[in-house]
């Protein structure tokens, strides 16, 4: 694991809101991140069904997308969300953890574009997908500093 | 022509406040985030009370984008549900007592939700108000705006589409 990846992991696991929702980082590196959020009754949106609230899924997607940006080889520091769109395909099954995979598929000098997918135990149909734009600050290359 | 007497103020207020409380209490996640609602007539606004667990970046510090997104989504969904149910509990077709007892009408389901982050969320209370731009039999479109110190300086806004609960067809 590179120092930068290690740093990103420490940074993400120290986020108070990520801790509060019980998120954990499964895998990270080269503009891709995988995060998991265990099922918890406090995250429920509708007690009659026991389904997790969309907002909690959004929070997981947002964190995972941000992590993917931070792990990009050219990213120099933290990132902030500019825009995030979530499409909800189906309700997550009560009692099951949600796993999100985010990929930073393109970066410009100031913007990173990210896609993410969230699944529960049934990985054949995603619970939700997300597309987002994040702030991006590339590291200064040697040429720039000369 | 003889008009019926208007209901006493406290009866109206008690019914509406109880209906709102039942709607908000039905979303455990809203409590975890620290969201409350205030009502003026049928107008709702919500508050995301500051708490450390909603922080995303402890160095700045700033509210987590996910907490902001969830705050906006909860506000949009509850406001939509509120306006959807309003005529029913006002006419008496929906009994507020049964709502309070936990027998809640089904919630609108989020189809998609797009959040626009305009400024970083400061470590203090945030406020939001949702507008139902279109509410059809099946689908609804809701816009929600959130601010902190200045009402006209939004720190985030969002638009979402929702699937309305369908009344069960009689067999």
Describe the structure.
The complex is a heterodimer of chains A (146) and B (171). Chain A has one domain (3-145): Roll (Thiol Ester Dehydrase, Chain A). Chain A is 25% helix and 36% strand. Chain A has helices spanning 3-13, 16-20, 54-70, 142-145; strands spanning 24-29, 32-37, 44-46, 51-52, 81-88, 98-107, 111-119, 128-135. In chain A, the strands form two sheets. In chain A, strands 1-2-6-7-8-5 form a six-stranded antiparallel sheet, covered by helices on one side. A two-stranded antiparallel ribbon of chain A has the order 3-4. Mean pLDDT of chain A is 89; it is low at 142-146. With 171 residues, chain B is an alpha+beta fold. Chain B has a single domain, classed as Thiol Ester Dehydrase, Chain A (Roll). In chain B, helix 1 packs across helix 3 (65-91). Chain B is globular and about 65 Å long. The model of chain B has no long low-confidence stretch (mean pLDDT 93). Classes of the chains: A alpha+beta (146), B alpha+beta (171). Chain A binds chain B through residues 14-21, 41-48, 52-56, 58-63, 66, 78, 80-88, 91, and chain B through 26-33, 52-59, 62, 64-67, 69-71, 73-74, 77, 102, 104, 106-107, 109-117, 120. Strand 5 (81-88) of chain A pairs antiparallel with strand 5 of chain B.
Brief overview:
The complex is a heterodimer of chains A (146) and B (171). Chain A has 146 residues and is an alpha+beta fold.
Attribute tags:
heterodimer; A: 146 residues; Thiol Ester Dehydrase, Chain A; 6-stranded antiparallel β-sheet; two-stranded antiparallel ribbon; 4 helices; 8 strands; 25% helix; B: 171 residues; alpha+beta; globular
């Amino acid at each position: 694991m590179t120092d930068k990846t290690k740093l990103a992991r420490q940074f993400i696991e120290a986020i108070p809101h990520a801790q509060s929702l019980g998120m954990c980082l499964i895998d990270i590196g080269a503009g891709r991140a995988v995060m998991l959020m265990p099922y918890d009754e406090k995250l429920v949106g509708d007690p009659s069904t026991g389904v997790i609230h969309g907002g909690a899924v959004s929070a997981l997607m947002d964190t995972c997308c941000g992590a993917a940006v931070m792990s990009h080889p050219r990213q120099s520091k933290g990132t902030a969300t500019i825009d995030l769109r979530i499409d909800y395909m189906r309700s997550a099954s009560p009692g099951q953890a949600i796993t999100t995979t985010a990929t930073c598929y393109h970066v410009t000098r100031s913007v990173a574009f990210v896609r993410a997918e969230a699944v529960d135990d049934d990985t054949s149909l995603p619970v939700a997908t997300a597309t987002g734009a994040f702030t991006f600050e590339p590291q200064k290359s040697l040429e720039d500093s000369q | 022509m003889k008009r019926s007497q208007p209901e006493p103020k406290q009866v109206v207020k008690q019914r509406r406040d109880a209906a709102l409380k039942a709607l908000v209490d039905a979303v455990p996640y809203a409590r975890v985030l620290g969201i409350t609602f205030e009502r003026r007539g049928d107008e709702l606004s919500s508050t995301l009370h500051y708490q450390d667990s909603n922080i995303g970046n402890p160095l700045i510090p700033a509210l987590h984008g996910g907490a902001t997104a969830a705050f906006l989504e909860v506000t949009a969904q509850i406001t939509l549900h509120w306006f959807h149910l309003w005529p029913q509990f006002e006419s008496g077709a929906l009994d507020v007592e049964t709502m309070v007892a936990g027998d809640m009408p089904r919630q609108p389901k989020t189809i998609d939700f797009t959040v626009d982050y305009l400024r970083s969320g400061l470590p203090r209370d945030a406020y939001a108000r949702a507008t139902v731009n279109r509410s059809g039999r099946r689908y609804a479109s809701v816009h929600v705006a959130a601010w902190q110190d200045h009402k006209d300086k939004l720190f985030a806004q969002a638009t979402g589409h929702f699937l309305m609960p369908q009344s069960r067809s009689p067999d």
